[in-house]
Amino acid sequence: MTEVGAREANAVTDAAAVVAPGDAGARAAPPRRPGAGRGGRAGRGFAAWIWGLVGILTIALIWEGYKLLGPADGVVVGDLRIMPRTTDLAMPHVWQMLGRLFEPVTRADDALPLWAAVALAALTTLGIAAAGWLVGVVVGIGLALVMQRWRIAEWGLLPWIVLSQTVPLIAFAPIVKSWGSRVEIGAFEWQDWMSVALIASYLAFFPIAIGALKGLQSPDRIHTELMETYAAGYWQTLVKLRFPAAVPYLLPALRLGAANAVIGAVVAEVSTGLQGGIGRILIQFAGQASGDPAKAWGPIFGAIVLGLVAAGSVALLGVILSNYRRNEEHA
Amino acid sequence: MSAAVEITGVDKTFDTRSGAVQALTGIDLTVEAGEFVSLIGPSGCGKSTLMRLIADLDEPTAGTVEVFGKGARQARLDQEYGIAFQSAGLLPWRTVAANVALPLELHGVASAARSTRVAELLDMVGLSDFADRYPDQLSGGMQQRVAIARALAEQPRLLLMDEPFGALDEMTREKMQSDLVRISAETGAAVVFVTHSIPEAVFLSDRVVVMSPRPGRIQEIVPMRLGAEAARAARTEELREERAFFDMVTAVREALHQGSPVGTAPRGLENR
To answer: Most exposed of B2, B37, B66, B185 (fewest Cβ within 10 Å)?
Structure first.
């Protein structure tokens, strides 16, 4: 849980970084020639994959190195254990964790291999997170529109939006669930997964609202005045100028929102006890770790891949919208 | 037919933190239809402010601004003018053609008519081969030409230009001036042209309005007498070498110095 907490904190600081993605510096850069840099960009993409791989291998090496050289009882200073035990129970070998993925979940005859069970759970969570993300996008962009349109709304709303993120997620997950169980409108009945999606959206909307606001406010005065000379109304200016100009700010915000939605969904699954998602099996398999230490790592890997898939899907959106990102220096 | 611009008794005061600043005072100016008028003066003389009043980007504190016999606001809503700023202000995510098409798009011109008109305009500014490029792939001069094409998109009878060539190098600048002379002759539009450069004002204009600062006011209006070359279409590069051209440069410079002998140019002015 502390790990998730730390990532949450990271997401918040990253949201602050959304403020200036392309930056004015890009404008001063020499004009790019047509076609030039295509090869360079592909090369950079390739290098990024290589470095990603190097990073993973380094972590694996450090893990195995410490396991090999560290004391079996871990490093203890006074009463405080500052490094973990290196026993197979506390730190399974990397290959054990990976190998475990291809063995059945349980000893039952019809048991799926661990990776398949994890993948199914991850897909469930992904669906819930996606629903939460969509709600976050709608709410985030809606708030940004209101704040951009009316200065006074920005003054009134922005502090509350920032404050909303200081409420610990676990604190209100059960409350949301119990409220949800009382909602019943005609044929519509509140499902438990909706509570989880709602909590995911609560984390997702924040970076999106901040990023979209900065993006909508980003057009230069010369552009807004140009639209004024065209006698363009609010909606025309919004569609032709503000939204396109907001794309470089929105994309990182949407990506952060996606990562946050996944974190929110996993945490909410754990704290509301929703079945079927990856949050549930994280807890369940961790409970079996004393007998099967490598098994607990399956859902952890699954959660990581889940986050990458979510963020990667948004990156794909960035490729489609690349014409709106011409002033960005780093893709 | 009414004048392109009719400014009567205009004052403009800006409220700043350190009190009210008188930007313009007692401005009277008429720009006839088809006339090319330059506004020149040192920094802070309010020439850009005056242009913004004509464009209805600001409102005068007192007095009236009329464009083709209408109030400035109505003239803006009716798209009576085209405008170009010091920086081209192209939308980076649109191609050259799409940038030029923007005003047409906003005002609901049908797609076919739009592309015909855009092709015409790009031909006029000599950028037909660059229609599918993006602004970041163009030089500063080319970007400015796209901006001029965009300003001309709806065949306005008035063109407002706020130091459009200010950021260009000298060579490009002279080329652009010649192009502008040709284009304004072709379109027959009146032009209000804000500039820092005396030769630029002399080369382009029928009349040069010399302004002075603190508070901004019109010092003198110098009509350009450039002899047989006065017809706008006939203004060519040779004009820059003519005796009459230098006489007019001197006349404007002396007006800027309020008739006193010319020493160094006032701050913010270029003699080139």
So the answer is: B2
Do the chains contact at A31 and B77, CB–CB below 8 Å?
no
Q: CATH 3.40.50.300: does it fit domain B1-80+156-272?
A: yes
pTM score: 0.76
Residue A130 inside a domain? The answer is yes
H-state helical runs in chain B? 47-54, 72-77, 96-106, 111-124, 140-151, 170-187, 198-204, 243-256
Environment class of residue B63 by beta-carbon count within 10 Å: exposed (0-12), middle (13-18) or buried (19+)? middle
Count: domains in chain A: 1
Q: CA dist A198 to A101, A145, A180, A262, B65, Å?
A: 31, 21, 10, 12, 56
- Specify the pLDDT at position B271: 53
Average pLDDT over residues B87-110: 88
Interface residue B133 vs chain A (CB under 8 A): yes
pLDDT, tens only, B216-262: 888 788 777 665 445 655 666 667 777 777 777 777 787 788 744 44
Asked, for residue A82, whether it belongs to a domain, the answer is: no
Within-domain flag for A141: yes
The alpha-carbon radius of gyration of chain B (Å, integer) is 18
Angle at A234 between CA A228 and CA A238, to 5 degrees: 100
Task: Tell me what the pLDDT averaged over chain A comes to.
Answer: 80
Contact across the interface for A230 and B106, Cβ inside 8 Å: yes
What confidence tens digit (pLDDT) does each residue in A216-274 have? 998 888 899 889 888 888 898 999 899 998 988 998 899 999 988 998 898 888 888 78
Provide the domain limits for residue A203: 2-23+104-325
Segments making up each domain of chain B, as ranges: 1-80+156-272, 90-155
Decide: helix, strand or coil at residue B60. Answer: coil
> CA-to-CA distance for B185 and B202, rounded, in angstroms?
16
Say whether B138 and A31 touch across the interface (CB within 8 A): yes
Choose the closest CB to B106 out of A220, A222, A236: A236
Closest-CA residue to A128 (of A3, A258, A284): A258
Pairing of strands B36-40, B19-31: unpaired
CATH at residue A304: 1.10.3720.10
Q: Do A34 and B136 touch (CB under 8 A)?
A: no
